[in-house]
Amino acid sequence: MALMIIAPGTRVTSWVKHLERLEPGIDIRVWPDTGARDEIDFALSWQHPPGEFKKYRYLKCIASLGAGVDHLLADPDLPAGVPLTRVVEHSMAQSMSEYVILAVLNHCRQFDDYRTDQSQKKWQPRIPLLAADMRIGIMGLGQLGTDAAGKLIALGFAVSGWRKTPQTIDGVDCFAGTEALNDFLSQTRILICMLPLTPQTKGILNRDTFAKLPAGAYVINVARGAHLLEDDLLAALDTDQLSGACLDVFETEPLPSDHPFWSHPKITVTPHISSITFSRAVAPQIIENYRRSQTGQPLLNVVDPQRGY
Length: 309
Ligand code: NDP
Known about the structure:
Elements: E1 2-6, H1 13-22, E2 28-30, E3 40-45, E4 61-64, H2 70-73, E5 84-85, H3 90-108, H4 111-119, E6 136-139, H5 143-154, E7 159-163, E8 172-176, H6 181-186, E9 190-193, H7 207-212, E10 217-221, H8 230-238, E11 242-247, E12 267-269, H9 279-295
Parallel strand pairs: 1-2, 1-3, 3-4, 4-5, 6-7, 6-9, 7-8, 9-10, 10-11, 11-12
Helix pairs in contact: 1-9, 3-5
Bound molecules: NADPH dihydro-nicotinamide-adenine-dinucleotide phosphate (NDP).
NADPH dihydro-nicotinamide-adenine-dinucleotide phosphate (NDP) binds next to helix 5 and strand 7.
């Protein structure tokens, strides 16, 4: 049987190399050159064409190439009963935490302003925002949110977290459920979205959410573009309810050249790079699940399609 990589627009050479290194002799097919579809029983996927998977009758696993599975669950024709897995990997959490820390410190130490001052040869000391005064609120305390919380606490920030189910984490002020959202937001001066994209979280970064933050709060979105209502963000920046935003993900990617975010003085844009899936680091867990699928053992990092993450 064969493993198919289906990731249109993604260079998959290094995936093939690392998978073959770990499992010599593995039969890898790169979509659309799949050969006989009935020979494929394991799919490694990123942004597949909707409806494609229903053509493969013997799939035992559809593995997301990333930590999120919203790109899979958005397909109304996803075959029922085929397990979905996602990537859970330390290097992804490390890389995401680095990005988040950079964005937080950039805001608190006002580096964007110093960059502008430098371009004007202006010597202008500014009073930094102190870590101890800047409560950070992380939406989503999963693999990524928990790692970032620990590292921000180590830097001296007060950290709150919001999740679906109540659970405590050392040093983090934990809030759970929609009923706790207002309390969570009311004390958050830097809001970081690290939620999965589900029907419940879509559009959660909206005008109501921003209004509940203390005036002048800062927003960082590293989750998915559809979490944010872009016009609501622009309106909240216009009224100074928000002081700025750092965005790595967007409703439309690549961000269109005429999008107002590109030139907005209070918005930092990066091209969906906050955490990258490294094929060398992730290939071992893909091969582990491939072997498990061949021998009927339980798969690792399985996603609950009802829950959406
Ligand atoms: P996890 O599944 O480990 O964690 C998800 C967290 O979100 C959990 O704490 C969960 O709560 C919480 N959550 C889910 N739904 C709700 C809800 N309705 N209300 C409140 N809390 C909720 O995911 P990861 O940390 O691994 O990844 C998070 C997301 O980050 C991914 O889904 C992906 O979209 C995004 N991502 C973005 C990347 C980028 O490059 N920009 C790279 C990697 C990931 P509970 O713990 O109670 O279940």
